[in-house]
């Protein structure tokens, strides 16, 4: 990004995930402007009015925009998509959300060549691959939120068990954001100590813990219909890292040439 150039994050989809991501971006002040885009203009405008009431704690400006406006943004976050139904797997969403993604990308053309496209809609790994094919952007500028949220859920569970800060836990969920994801137990540490050497991990059923992390979203969806606080915060963190070149290491969905897929 050019120094001192006003930065813009466009968020496609003003529903629960998109509006929460906009809220988190506003509170973190990660961009000069957050642009909210949705085909439901009445709902989009109401979300913008609500978000503008946060202006006294942030210099980030929030406004409504069009798909063409979004195509000129520095980061384009796509949250638009059909909601995951209780008991529905992420791969089952592919057919419904592929068509939505294709329409969004078509309506944003031409996308400015330096833009970073961040896919959040599920199934995120498959849709990131679709976006790389259809957006016209280089593959290294099209990312998905991947297993970032899963990794944070894992770290939160471990931090709670061990009585340490979540930021002290370095552990990753890798692979698909979904049913086949796996925990990289062997590389996990707390501080500089291997996780599995800690006394507090004695007797922990690792497969059971991994399943509880994997299925946390389903538990939330069953009770309230959607998850949005965690992923909204992840989106804001990723946008801030990209715009400010923070060089954070995040488990995002990206293209792996040897496998010819997008995964983490």
TrEMBL record:
Residues 147-253 form the Lactate/malate dehydrogenase C-terminal domain. Keywords: NAD, Oxidoreductase. NAD(+) binds at residues 13-18, 38, 97, 120-122. One of its GO terms (biological process) is lactate metabolic process. Residues 8-144 form the Lactate/malate dehydrogenase N-terminal domain. It catalyses: (S)-lactate + NAD(+) = pyruvate + NADH + H(+). The active site is at 177 (proton acceptor). It holds the Pfam family Ldh_1_N. Its EC number is 1.1.1.27. Pathway: Fermentation; pyruvate fermentation to lactate; (S)-lactate from pyruvate: step 1/1. InterPro entries: L-lactate/malate_DH (IPR001557), L-lactate_DH_AS (IPR018177), Lactate/malate_DH_C (IPR022383), Lactate/malate_DH_N (IPR001236), Lactate_DH/Glyco_Ohase_4_C (IPR015955), NAD(P)-bd_dom_sf (IPR036291). GO terms for molecular function: L-lactate dehydrogenase (NAD+) activity. Coiled coil: none annotated. Belongs to the LDH/MDH superfamily. LDH family. PANTHER family: L-2-HYDROXYCARBOXYLATE DEHYDROGENASE (NAD(P)(+)), L-LACTATE DEHYDROGENASE. This is L-lactate dehydrogenase. It comes from Blyttiomyces helicus.
């Amino acid at each position: 990004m050019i120094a001192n150039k006003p930065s813009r994050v466009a968020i496609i989809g003003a529903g629960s995930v998109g509006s929460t991501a906009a809220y988190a971006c506003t509170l973190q002040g990660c961009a000069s402007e957050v642009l909210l885009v949705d085909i439901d203009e009445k709902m989009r405008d109401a979300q913008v009015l609500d978000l503008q009431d946060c202006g006294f704690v942030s210099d980030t400006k929030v406004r409504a925009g069009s798909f063409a406006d979004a195509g000129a943004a520095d980061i384009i976050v796509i949250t638009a998509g059909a909601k995951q139904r209780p008991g529905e797997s992420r791969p089952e969403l592919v057919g419904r959300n592929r068509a939505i993604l294709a329409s969004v990308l078509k309506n944003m053309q031409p996308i400015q060549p330096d833009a970073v496209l961040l896919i959040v809609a599920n199934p995120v790994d498959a849709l990131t691959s679709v976006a790389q094919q259809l957006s016209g952007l280089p593959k290294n500028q099209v990312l998905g939120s991947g297993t970032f949220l899963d990794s944070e859920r894992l770290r939160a569970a471990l931090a709670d068990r061990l009585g340490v800060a979540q930021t002290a836990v370095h552990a990753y969920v890798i692979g698909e954001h979904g049913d086949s994801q796996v925990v990289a137990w062997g590389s996990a540490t707390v501080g500089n100590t291997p996780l599995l050497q800690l006394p507090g991990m004695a007797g922990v059923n690792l497969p059971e813990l991994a399943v509880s992390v994997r299925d946390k979203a389903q538990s939330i969806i069953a009770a309230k219909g959607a998850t949005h606080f965690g992923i909204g915060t992840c989106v804001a963190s990723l946008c801030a890292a990209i715009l400010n070149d923070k060089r954070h290491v995040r488990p995002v969905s990206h293209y792996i040439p040897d496998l010819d897929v997008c995964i983490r």
